[in-house]
Amino acid sequence: MNILLKFLPKDKRALLELAIRITSSLDTKQKRIDVSNYGIRILADGKVTPPEWATFGSKLGILTGKKN
Question: 42 CB contacts (<8 Å, ≥6 apart)?
Fold first, then answer.
């Protein structure tokens, strides 16, 4: 993967590295695919609503609700 990154422009490489780091904490390949697809879908129109951000964060495991 690192060899491929070297051929990308710096801005694209930074974005790809960020995406990899964001999804690296997910347990399975399918979870990473699902979260990535959801992120692409919510960003398609260039606008993300607070509920969409909350859903994205919860899918990533970084936002959780109250624990009783």
Answer: 48, 52, 55, 56
Q: Which of 17, 13, 55 is nearest to 34 (CA)?
A: 55
Instruction: Give the separation between CA 12 and CA 4, rounded to whole angstroms.
Output: 12
What global pTM score does this model have? 0.70
Residue 47 in contact with residue 53, Cβ under 8 Å?
no
Tell me if 22 sits within 8 A of 60, measured CB to CB: yes
Confidence of residue 68 (pLDDT cuts 50, 70, 90): very low
Provide the token pair at 5.
């990154």
